[in-house]
């Protein structure tokens, strides 16, 4: 049983032969990704506010590295409290949001850098101004409620969220989506090209004959141009044979 091998020349020949198909797939996939990004997907805007976990001013003189470590340990707890119904229910009430605490939780992300006392609250919403309001109100409510929930007063708003004059959505990213679409189109086009080449069993060259029959080519019959064919001579020869 003969093993079929494909050389680099065969690969490039196939790609060149199906170049129009591949380009069509790329253009089509990129266009679809662009249409979906610009016309079908809802823009989402983002707002951030930062909260500083620290000691109160009255305790500043006794502030030690142990206090910092204690605050860092509290941050993980604060991250959970910020997204808890105890905080979000008050946010919903103040802003009169038509959302449940569970739905609002999906819009809020809370994170802090390693060994940092700063907690960042990020809010994403289709309305850039509402995203800013939610971020700031969440920080304010959290700052007010922490003394009641934890019996400590070591939270301050470091940087409130603001809405720029020309807010830009963070999602969708049309350029990224179109780039991904182009890559998918390229992969799809190349795949279809090689599939069509694999399914095409017609014999087009001497190499195809050798590959199919497993025998070397001994000779070729060259085509005779029509201009060199004497029609009258062919007719007379045919009549003589009869």
From TrEMBL:
InterPro entries reported for this sequence: Bact_polysacc_biosynth/exp, GNVR, LPS_length_determ_N
Keyword Transmembrane helix: yes
Location(s), subcellular: Cell membrane
Membrane topology type: Multi-pass membrane protein
Domain Polysaccharide chain length determinant N-terminal as annotated: residue spans: 4-94
GO cellular component: plasma membrane
Residues spanning the membrane: 20-40, 175-196
Main location: membrane
Domain Tyrosine-protein kinase G-rich: 143-195
Keyword Cell membrane carried by entry: yes
Sample GO molecular function, one term: protein tyrosine kinase activity
Signal peptide: none
Keywords: Cell membrane, Membrane, Transmembrane, Transmembrane helix
Annotated PANTHER family: FERRIC ENTEROBACTIN TRANSPORT PROTEIN FEPE (PTHR32309:SF13), TYROSINE-PROTEIN KINASE (PTHR32309)
Family classification: Belongs to the CpsC/CapA family.
The name this protein goes by in its record: Capsular polysaccharide type 8 biosynthesis protein cap8A
Highest classification ranks of the organism: Bacteria, Bacillati, Bacillota, Bacilli, Bacillales
